[in-house]
């Protein structure tokens, strides 16, 4: 089963966009990656005494924004297009901010988080023109 199959079964879906579904899926995954990265950063701070507070903050902000984006992206009843577009734009900004921060750290979890954030931002950019 896929997310696209689920959304297509909604009684008010006429023209679901593959781009929005993919962006929602990536946002959901990005939320999990960012949460995991923040948790790993906490462990690094404890073990190495490194100040990872900005990375943790950016990851947790991005995780929350991505989770909300995923939820808004799959709702079809009485859509609020302006809010959805604003949320997608916010997700792009949060992902870019988190990726830039994570790219400044030399560890695998930050590298993976940055990659996922970049992919999520790209998919959100592709979805924006389809939301109307």
Automatic annotation (TrEMBL):
Top-level lineage group: Bacteria
InterPro entries, alphabetically? Csp_YhjQ (IPR005560), YHJQ-like (IPR044543)
Coiled coil region boundaries:
none
Instruction: Tell me which positions the record assigns to the signal sequence.
Output: none
One Pfam family per UniProt: Csp
Q: Which PANTHER family match?
A: CYTOPLASMIC PROTEIN, CYTOPLASMIC PROTEIN-RELATED
Q: What is this protein called?
A: Four-helix bundle copper-binding protein
Organism of this sequence = Qipengyuania oceanensis
